[in-house]
Amino acid sequence: MRRYLRRSLWQIGIVVLGIATINFFLLHLAPGDAAEVMAGESGAATAEYMAALRQQFGIDQPLYLQFLRYVGHLLTLDLGYSFREGMPVAELMRQRLPATLLLMGSSTALAVSLGCVLGFMAARRAGKIADTVISTLALLFYATPVFWVGVMLVMVFSVALDWLPIGGMTSIEAGYRGWALAGDVARHLVLPAVTLGLFYLAIYTRLVRASMLEVYHLDFVRTARAKGVRPWRIATRHVLRNALLPVVTTLGVQLSSILGGAVLVETVFSWPGLGRLAFEALFHRDLALLLGILFCSSLVVVFVNLAVDLIYTLLDPRIELS
Amino acid sequence: MSLLDVKNLSISFATPRGRLAAVRDLSFSLKAGETLALVGESGCGKSLTALALLGLLEPPAVMEGNGIFLEGRNLLTLDEPTLRSLRGSRIAMIFQEPMTALNPVLTVGEQIMEVITEHEGGGRRAARARAVALMEKVRIPDAERRFAEYPHRLSGGLRQRVMIAMALACSPAVLIADEPTTALDVTIQAQILDLIGTLKRENGTAVLFITHDLGLVGQHADRVMVMYAGRVVEERTAADLFADPLHPYTRGLIAARPGLGGSGRRERLMEIPGTVPGLGAMPVGCAFSPRCAFADDLCRSTVPTSIDQAGGRIACHHSEGIHDREPAIRRIGNS
Ligand SMILES: Nc1ncnc2c1ncn2[C@@H]1O[C@H](COP(=O)(O)OP(=O)(O)OP(=O)(O)O)[C@@H](O)[C@H]1O
Ligand SMILES: [Mg+2]
């Protein structure tokens, strides 16, 4: 176990550095830089002004020097400085992190828990009405584009019914505190979390259903029946437990790709999280900030995958770390 | 009194083109402490019979009959919760494949405990202690430690012992062993069958021993039912059956059995010509008639009924005169 972890950590280090390198050069392939954007915005795009900006940002130097400096900083865990925002990248991200974690956490929790429950119910009533309803809805949400779901939810619940806020994370003008603030954030959270989670909710529902139906046909379920185990216990203890492995795999995939979804959803709902920060950074050619966010999300991806491996060994004793 | 009484049990599959009969008109009874072997080729309906006795047939399979009486109660008339409470406690089963018959994500100890807690309730502590005792009883060495092992860490023989411990946990009246040793190698096979025999004698359990291996039957069964294409063709005591088989199919099986002749040389194997008919292609008369050396028009047109004969039951139009016709089969066998 310890040897496995040590080896994985080495691999993770190499992979993360590799990703950072690729990110760096890919982003520099794109035309335009932060100086151009800023100068364009201020309307004073003289050559001297732009040169001065470039020198200040350190982007006048040859690319390989910029790269070496970037890697050097990374190795000392320094994510760099955003000249655009006038703040260290790490500090900017730290401010936005809680909002994103809240959004990702609640949408993932919603997708996994509700998906498992619905999939479980559908599998236990396979072929009956409840199953048909659940499976049809799951297919529907599976096939619907996320942004469209987001827009529709806003149209219905914010615009037409006026039950939930259109966007943002708090009602700033109300100045809530304590529990009132928590409730206010929760109300703001509903639509973006549902939008972000709905697609995966559909995936988990379908996955758990299919996987349970498959397990129901295995020999050990017949053994459990022959032992006189109650149907509910067969479903939970024997079937569901064995059907959870693919769920963990998908959870890994979901968490690894969630930043992409968060960019979209946070932008649509003006949720002050990392996704929107990344979107703005891209827009402003704020490469230091963008690289910082990408670096951290690559860390998340590799650690999520490590966690998935560890959870596998907990769920299935046949799998051993080697 | 017999512990298990099966009366005219039939099992069929509901298909779009009508019913396909897989097991027909099966009747037998089992007494305490007795081992009855159910022997037949692959696909003749042995496992279906076993599942039917537990009430575990799944659609499209359906069963009907005049009753399956377990300790006097007719299983065909009981509702599912009552059936469930009998399964594993009054009638238990050991399956063929110890590799896949155990849940891979639960320890073997938990799986044995489960039978006890489901049927008798009581504390986990007590159930655990009983599970360990059961593991010792089926001679799993180092039971206390093995309790916490997962199935994949145990050998096939040990896994089958776990299955036996599970099946015997609540001291069932009837134990069904469906090819319990087919997946094991020969030495382990003998140990497992001896174990089942010992436990049966200790507890007075009635055993239905399902096998396709006639070679195991002689030592391990008191009585034998030979099944062909879903019908019992001959039922005798094991001693009688081997001394003087009366149904042509049984005679063929025994002749085809590999073994050592008196001279130490391998006896000549006699194959039964032809193959078992499929469920959809059953002959009109006796199902064995297309392969039978004695078959005549009567056999091909009329299904023979089971008649009491020679201390058993035989379903053959010509079993009475079989000895006079013996040279005929020899001639065919040698040609
Ligand atoms: N779902 C099904 N639909 C149609 N036929 C089936 C179905 N399940 C089983 N059968 C048929 O029922 C017959 C009896 O099967 P069964 O499993 O009882 O055989 P068996 O005697 O136990 O054979 P084996 O020695 O291979 O275990 C077989 O011919 C099989 O093809
Ligand atoms: Mg079978």
TrEMBL record, chain A:
Q: Which GO biological process annotations does it have? A: transmembrane transport
Quote the cellular component terms of the Gene Ontology held in the record.
Answer: plasma membrane
So what family is this one in? Belongs to the binding-protein-dependent transport system permease family.
Residues of the ABC transmembrane type-1 domain: 97-312
Record-linked Pfam families: BPD_transp_1, BPD_transp_1_N
In the UniProt record, does the keyword Nucleus occur?
no
Segments traversing the membrane: 12-30, 101-121, 133-161, 185-203, 243-269, 289-315
Q: Which Gene3D superfamilies match?
A: MetI-like
Q: What is this protein called?
A: ABC transporter permease
**Signal sequence extent:** none
Which superkingdom?
A: Bacteria
Q: Does the keyword Transcription regulation apply?
A: no
Give the main localization category: membrane
Q: Which PROSITE patterns match?
A: ABC_TM1
> Which keywords are on file for this protein?
Cell membrane, Membrane, Transmembrane, Transmembrane helix, Transport
* Membrane topology designation: Multi-pass membrane protein
CDD domains the record matches: TM_PBP2
Q: What is the lineage of its organism?
A: Bacteria, Pseudomonadati, Pseudomonadota, Alphaproteobacteria, Rhodospirillales
Task: Tell me where it resides.
Answer: Cell membrane
Automatic annotation (TrEMBL), chain B:
- Enumerate the UniProt keywords alphabetically: ATP-binding, Cell membrane, Membrane, Nucleotide-binding, Transport
Q: Does the keyword Membrane apply?
A: yes
| Species this chain originates from | Telmatospirillum siberiense
- Compartments, record wording: Cell inner membrane
GO BP annotations of the record are: peptide transport; transmembrane transport
Q: Which SUPFAM superfamilies match?
A: P-loop containing nucleoside triphosphate hydrolases
Family indicated by similarity? Belongs to the ABC transporter superfamily.
- Write down the PANTHER family for this protein, in alphabetical order: DIPEPTIDE TRANSPORT ATP-BINDING PROTEIN DPPD (PTHR43297:SF2), OLIGOPEPTIDE TRANSPORT ATP-BINDING PROTEIN APPD (PTHR43297)
Query: Which GO molecular function terms does the record list?
Result: ATP binding; ATP hydrolysis activity
- A Gene Ontology CC term for this entry? plasma membrane
Membrane spanning residue stretches:
none
Q: Which domain of life is it from?
A: Bacteria
- By what name is this protein known? Peptide ABC transporter ATP-binding protein
Instruction: Tell me yes or no: is Transferase among this UniProt entry's keywords.
Output: no
Q: Where is the ABC transporter domain?
A: 6-254
What the entry lists under InterPro entries is as follows: AAA+_ATPase, ABC_Ni/Peptide_Import, ABC_transporter-like_ATP-bd, Oligopep_ABC_C, P-loop_NTPase
Q: How does it sit in the membrane?
A: Peripheral membrane protein
